[in-house]
Specification:
alpha+beta; 4-stranded mixed sheet; disordered N terminus
Length: about 110
């Protein structure tokens, strides 16, 4: 059985102390953000809302580029995603995915540094 800490050993631990780690959720900027978002099956309104939030999260996480998977289908999601990216202040540029990235079923966006 491992030894338990005594009051004296715990005495320097707590908020404001070196080595103290607060329980609870991490701030948004510390949470890992995926490098891609899957939008398949979403309506254009749902996709627009998700992409807006995702771009903010990705920028705050310091990602240089992201992949948005919208599929080929009718092209409605692709058009919505690209229209949003074209006017978004955090997006430097965007392009079709390479064949290994999903081809025309995905869009890769480079985010502004900063």
């Amino acid at each position: 059985m491992p030894p338990t800490a005594t009051g004296r050993e715990l005495a320097g631990r707590g908020p404001g102390r070196v080595g103290f780690r607060s329980p609870g959720p991490l701030p948004a900027s510390s949470r890992p953000v995926a490098t891609e978002i899957l939008l398949l099956g979403q309506t254009t309104d749902e996709a627009r809302d998700r992409v807006e939030k995702y771009l903010d999260d990705a920028f705050l996480a310091g990602l240089a580029s992201v992949r948005l998977v919208h599929g080929k289908g009718s092209g409605a999601l692709r058009k919505t995603v690209r229209d949003l990216l074209a006017g978004h202040p955090l997006v430097e540029s965007f392009r079709d995915g390479e064949p290994s990235e999903g081809g025309t079923g995905a869009t890769v966006a480079a985010l502004k540094v900063g």
